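Example (one chain per record):
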Amino acid sequence: MKNTYYFLRHGQSKANVAGIILSGLEEGKKSDYTLTEVGEAEILTSVVHARDQGILDQSTLIFSSPFSRCARSAEIVKEVLGLDQEISFDDRLRERWFGDWEHTSNEHYERVWEDDRLNSAHTIANVESADDVQRRTIALIQELEERYRDRVILLVSHGDALQILHTGLKGVSAATHRELAHLKTAEIRRWDVS
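Predicted structure:
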């Protein structure tokens, strides 16, 4: 790999607190579902720590999901690091589409993940398949590898998108995404790509 990648899961959002699934792109961009005050504080703490540890600095490139919860997280990163360059928003980092479960209880995630374990290509209840999420997120990494060399790149996204991307980077089935160490809200993690 030519670049070093860090993934940041957005901070606590209003949808998290409400306990609802919010995965539609247009709805997700609305400020109604941005970070909570706790979420903003989580991101601030994580980014200050990463900056102080020399993990992220003024040369960091930020690519983010356009959802308001990620966009606000990315804006805080930009502010803390004092970045001049703009945040690049990319739909390939968007939340996984949860189909018929949209605007329902987030307890339904478990049902989707169980179906994923059995078949990563499933689209039960019109859910975006884990395989499709893996393809779109890996396509972004491939593009970044072609465009940049020796850069630190921060990808700001969502739990499922990042977990599934990790399976693609490891070269394993997207069906295994829930077996990987789960990203907490506002967690920054280096993903070693081999």
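Caption: Helices lie at 14-18, 25-29, 37-52, 68-81, 108-118, 130-147, 159-170.
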